[in-house]
């Protein structure tokens, strides 16, 4: 059993490595991976998830510049997420649907982190998969889902118009709409509230340590995606919150 979980962990870490490449290389996957600083090609053992970073001591073997710690953090995180997902859901159809949604969310998280923008294609895919799951597997009424999603996105749309796009982006509103379709009520509401709180807390910490100002932009979509993943993984633990809604 331990070996099985280790395999799942490294599979998740591999997915994270691939997702990071997709997020960084917005124009395609052509060519081998290279160091962002010196441009030298990275050998296969340097691309091994988690272990490649550890054995290289977090530095390029050619120019000795530091490799972004995000690579290690994201690989460990998605490895742990997939292991937790299998532990809670097993290999049921719910697990496969949850895994698909989690991988899309992780891609959105990474893409927004690197580029400060959310790709429409991934958001649409998230909405479609979530909508199919809600309608055909959970039996939720389609009009109920659409009304919930509209009501969830409407306040943020008003903020977007009022601030002329200064407080949040249109991609964030689209993601909130897609999350509401995918997670339903009250889980989408919990994810959005936690996303707002976590983004605010992180921003205040950056301001306190003078790493940002109150006008600095944050990848809000990354926080939304992360808190949504947590809600998917720990729905049973969030049941106590559900009673408040």
Quaternary structure annotation: single chain
Q: Return residue spans where pLDDT drops below 50 for at least 5 consecutive residues.
A: none
Helix content: 55-70%
Broad shape: globular
Mean pLDDT: 84
Based on helices, strands and strand pairing, what is the structural class? mainly alpha
Question: What is the number of independent domains?
Answer: 2
Helix and strand run: HHHHHHHHHH
Q: Let me know the number of strands.
A: 0
Distance between the termini: 38 Å
Q: Can you count the helices?
A: 10
For the largest beta-sheet, the strand count, sense and barrel status come to: none
Percent strand equals: under 5%
The Cα radius of gyration reads 19 Å
Protein architecture, described:
By secondary structure, the chain is mainly alpha-helical. The protein folds into two domains: about 1-90, no CATH class; about 90-245, no CATH class. It is about 70% helix and about 0% strand. It is built from ten helices and no strands. It has helices at about 1-25, 50-55, 70-90, 95-115, 120-135, 140-165, 170-185, 185-210, 220-235, 240.
